[in-house]
Amino acid sequence: MLDWDNTRVFLAVARTGQMLGAARKLGLDHATVSRRIANLEAGLGVKLIERRTSGCVLTATGETFLASAERIETELLRAQAALTGADVAVTGNVRVGAPDGFGTFVLARSFGALMDEHPGLNVQLVPLPRAFSLAKREADIAVTIDRPVEGRLTVRKLTDYTLSLYASCEFLTQHPRAAIEPQNCRVVSYVPDLIFSPALDYLGEFGLAGSAKFECAGMIGQMEAVRAGAGIGVLHDYSARNFPDLVRIAPERRVTRSYWIVTHDDVKDFARVRLVHDHIVATTGRLAREFVLK
User: Fold this and answer.
1) Angle formed by the axes of helices 30-44 and 4-16, to 10°?
2) Which domains are present in the chain?
3) Does 148 score more than 80 pLDDT?
4) pTM confidence score
């Protein structure tokens, strides 16, 4: 007979990629996690996980079992919500993954009011990394810059947004020709091999692909570097407007991108997930004029 407690531990190991990470996530010790996995494998008569020095890797059988375990988990979550009425009261955790710019300047400023209305709701806002899986419950909702095309996902376009070239007032005082010759300035940009989407590779569209660069992995870091005079940078117009020390240069140069909101089909109908999803959509709608610079 399948022991759900052991299966729950397996899911944690599969999602964290390590025994220690699973132990921390579940509040167990490493030995208990290891024993639970061994008991699960013995009960099923198959090898699910390969232990390596770099972590844990699922076997082919483990990958197959993972899909079944996640379906079981989903049904248990639905049953729990139906029996306890927790979803009706809109309580529990909802994890939202988002790019750092959107997360910082839009979502982080809006969730407090939502939780004031629903004291039992706990929203977790996490930065969107290069590899991100809704199927593995790494988040309930994701805001992405590319539209997903695979998986059991519900996808909706949130908004277009524009990006422009910016420099600090101090930088322009020291480099007065930057506004008309940006290609001759140092550019603050992403680290190329950490760009997780082609949509972030926009320097060529500004004619700056060959410029000297200061490379920073996150948008917030790039903005602070531009404000500190490290160079010019391509920044979100909706976030740059928060800082009067930033000046938009070469206004004829601008690119447009899009944000999408994504939920996994297994959790999209949970009341707490729907509530947060609809809040994000409504918040973005209210700020529509700020996202696209005309």
Assistant:
1) 110
2) 4-84 (1.10.10.10), 92-159+259-291 (3.40.190.10), 160-257 (3.40.190.10)
3) yes
4) 0.73
